[in-house]
């Protein structure tokens, strides 16, 4: 069993770390992605995330189960928050446990890359002078890496 | 009938979050053309279509009651 969920309340990373921890695990990696204030000189006031929730949860589970197949002995939990998030808030948490640390690191990075490719979640940046749906329009900043 | 969902910036093109289309028996490619006819400003080159929560091929055939979601470039994380 694993948890792969879209949530609206603040994310508590320890919940997910605890979930994946088990006696066979010698390593747990926990990645948290946060709302960043400055992106290439443009100041973000806050972010609004939206998801196609049932499909997003399905895709998060697919990513997690894919990892558990690809890296034997891993266990994965992923949560992404939606709604209005303030600077510094956690948008996403990925916890991976594995017998040895290299798998936990690799699998965790793979998870965030896949989330950014296939999970139907959208980020709207709200600035002092406007808004944009990231990835949809080509306003400033042109290229945003969103971790 | 097929139920259509529009997300994120696509709502600003359609002015609605969802609608019904009489496209049962037609393909996802036909659906794509239907959307372009309805909304000439829709950036279909960057939109993926999911049917019943799974990314679809343009040759997939729509069944009555299917839910089609228009997925603009995702930006989670």
TrEMBL record, chain A:
It is an enzyme of class 2 (transferase). Keywords: Transferase. Transmembrane segments: none annotated. It comes from Paenibacillus brasilensis. Pfam families: MoaE (PF02391). SUPFAM superfamilies: Molybdopterin synthase subunit MoaE (SSF54690). Its EC number is 2.8.1.12. This is Molybdopterin synthase catalytic subunit. One of its GO terms (molecular function) is molybdopterin synthase activity. InterPro entries: MoaE_sf (IPR036563), Mopterin_biosynth_MoaE (IPR003448).
Automatic annotation (TrEMBL), chain B:
It holds the Pfam family ThiS. InterPro entries: Beta-grasp_dom_sf, MoaD_arc-typ, MOCS2A, Mopterin_synth/thiamin_S_b, ThiS/MoaD-like. Belongs to the MoaD family. This is Molybdopterin synthase sulfur carrier subunit. The keyword 4Fe-4S does not apply. It comes from the Bacteria. It comes from Paenibacillus brasilensis. Keywords: Nucleotide-binding.
């Amino acid at each position: 069993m694993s948890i792969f969920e879209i949530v609206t309340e603040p994310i508590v990373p320890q919940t997910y770390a605890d979930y994946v921890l088990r006696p066979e695990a010698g390593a747990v990696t926990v990645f948290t992605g946060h709302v960043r204030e400055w992106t290439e000189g443009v100041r973000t006031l806050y972010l609004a995330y939206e998801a196609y929730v049932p499909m997003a949860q399905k895709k998060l589970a697919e990513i997690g189960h894919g990892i558990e197949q690809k890296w034997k002995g891993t266990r994965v939990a992923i949560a992404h928050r939606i709604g209005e998030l303030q600077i510094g808030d956690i948008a996403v948490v990925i916890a991976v446990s594995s017998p040895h640390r290299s798998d936990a690191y690799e699998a965790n990075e793979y998870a965030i890359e896949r989330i950014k490719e296939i999970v139907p979640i959208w980020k709207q940046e709200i600035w002092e002078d406007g808004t944009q749906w990231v990835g949809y329009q080509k306003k400033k900043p042109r290229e945003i890496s969103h971790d | 009938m097929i139920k259509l969902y529009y997300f994120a910036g696509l709502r600003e093109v359609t002015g609605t979050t969802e609608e019904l289309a009489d496209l049962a028996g037609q393909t996802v490619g036909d659906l794509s053309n239907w959307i372009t006819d309805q909304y000439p400003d829709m950036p279909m080159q960057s939109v993926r279509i999911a049917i019943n929560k799974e990314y679809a091929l343009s040759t997939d055939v729509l069944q009555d009651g299917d839910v089609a979601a228009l997925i603009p470039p995702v930006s989670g994380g």
